[in-house]
Specification:
single chain; 472 residues; alpha/beta; UDP-N-acetylmuramoyl-L-alanine:D-glutamate ligase; Rossmann fold; 9-stranded mixed sheet; 5-stranded parallel sheet; 15 helices; 24% strand; elongated; EC 2.7.1.167; carbohydrate metabolism; Cyt_trans-like
């Protein structure tokens, strides 16, 4: 996602705030008292958890965050408020309920492995008095914010009545409201802008076993339509996410290494809210959230992600294996649905024997936009155009070598003599051809928004290379 300059989105997080407590150590022996590990604790840390992890991620991304929740009048509650203040966050939206236990989850981590977790918390619904006080805080915040995020951990803050009233307020002020749901009855989220269950949660809520694309589509569509949502997003762990809006779109992810999925849903909700509040479309926000989740699962514990980390991850994708850049027309069409606000550059050719002239030409072409797609003539197409002795290199070899260039985003083969059909599907912003097309008709020029001609390097061509080989 492109940085949005001086704009800082203002986001309200409402939900179950808690503390995530970690005891970090190492294990080198088994207890003589019982067959359990003995963990030598070396350090201890406490961070915001639950809805607080959504807050952490938003702060890490650079958002202006407001928080509204109900906690207990206990030591854990005081520690939670102090943690908010240490991050420079306003605690005015935090309602304290007498006799309630503030949620605290304690985890023992030995040699990067979670050994045990123990919880101290209240799970009962907040009182009517607390709900009214919390709603009053939301009434004060909602007109001022860009997006509202509901983080439901099923600990009693987001009661059905309170949740419905918050969604009504969001609609009244025309504010997007995104929900990370909990439980098997989602009716209290009716009318929200978007919900983000994972596959297991979506299966539970819809009573549909999600085991293939057909059942996934059925479950997502049911959620969207039955709850009167604008969008539904089902997260699929290492398989990415599925978006249900005007159409169904499955978006893969490429997590390099998964250490811990703790809090990944919080990161997705935060990243979606941040990107959408920054002016991105739902598809762009989902792509951004997908990358954020891929980064955070590579960390241990309830982790956060920064814009710099996401930028680095995006760079690693651009530097992905050559094979991952080879796409069919169907694959590139689906992929470009997530990149509608990026400038697409297209060029085509045989690229039979790759030489320095090709490389420099493609580097210039890539400089015109965000994504460079090469339409690559098939072997049969080249034979029809250049004769039976061409190509020298097969389609597979030519495509792989082109895809290995950093300037090239994707390579898409085509069978026809011209790339007109491919250009008609891609509808590129910029069509690039060599300077020898000056004054000539360029195929697809009536489809692309702009045609640019690039000067070739004098004396560098596949034909001349072949002639020199024959002369020896």
């Amino acid at each position: 996602m492109k940085r949005n300059g001086t704009t800082q989105p203002h986001i309200l997080v409402i939900g179950d705030m808690m503390l995530d407590h970690y005891l970090w150590g190492k294990c080198e022996r088994i207890s003589p008292e019982a067959p359990v590990q003995v963990v030598d604790i070396q350090r201890e840390s406490t961070v915001l958890g639950g809805a607080g992890n959504v807050v952490n991620n938003l702060v890490s991304l650079g958002a202006h965050v407001s928080v509204a929740s109900v906690i207990g009048d206990d030591l854990n509650g005081k520690e939670l408020l102090e943690t908010l203040l240490l991050q420079g966050l306003d605690t005015a939206g935090m309602v304290v309920q007498e006799g309630r236990k503030t949620s605290k989850k304690s985890r023992v981590i030995a040699s990067h492995q979670q050994v045990v977790r123990y919880d101290s918390e209240s799970k009962d619904d907040i009182t009517e008095t607390s709900a009214e006080a919390l709603l009053a805080q939301c009434v004060a915040y909602i007109p001022k914010v860009d997006v509202i995020l509901l983080s439901d951990y099923g600990k009693g803050v987001l009661t059905p009545n309170f949740t419905c009233k918050v969604i009504e307020l969001a609609k009244k002020y025309q504010k997007p409201i995104f929900v990370d749901p909990k439980g098997d009855d989602y009716h209290k989220y009716s009318g929200a802008t978007l919900i983000t269950p994972n596959k297991k949660e979506a299966s539970l809520a819809t009573k549909i076993a999600i085991n293939d694309d057909e059942s996934l589509h059925k479950a997502g569509t049911l959620l969207k339509e039955s709850l009167d949502l604008e969008y539904a997003i089902i997260t699929l762990s290492e398989d990415g996410m599925a978006i249900f809006g005007e159409q169904f779109l499955k978006m893969p992810t490429v997590a390099r290494e998964v250490y811990d999925v703790t809090g990944a849903g919080d990161t997705v909700l935060a990243a979606l809210g941040y990107a959408y509040a920054s002016g991105q479309s739902i598809q762009e926000a989902a792509s951004f959230a997908n990358k954020a989740a891929a980064v955070v699962v590579g960390k241990l514990g309830s982790a956060t992600v920064t814009l710099d980390e996401i930028d680095a991850y995006e760079h690693s994708l651009r530097s992905a294996t050559a094979e991952s850049k080879l796409k069919s027309i169907e694959e590139i069409t689906r992929l470009l649905q997530t990149k509608k606000h990026q400038k697409i550059v297209f060029t085509n050719g045989c690229f039979d024997i790759l030489h320095v002239g090709h490389v420099k030409y493609l580097e210039v072409a890539k400089s015109f936009g965000d994504i460079l797609i090469i339409g690559l003539n098939s072997d049969d197409s080249i034979k029809r155009l250049k004769g039976e002795h061409r190509p020298i290199n097969t389609l597979e070899d030519r495509a792989y070598i082109l895809a290995s260039l950093e300037s090239v985003s994707y390579v898409v083969p085509f069978e026809e003599d011209t790339p007109l059909e491919l250009i008609s599907v891609l509808k590129p912003d910029i069509l690039v051809k060599g300077a020898d097309y000056e004054g000539k008709d360029v195929v697809g020029s009536n489809i692309a928004k702009e045609v640019r001609l690039v000067q070739f390097i004098e004396g560098k061509s596949t034909t001349r290379i072949i002639e020199r080989i024959h002369q020896k």
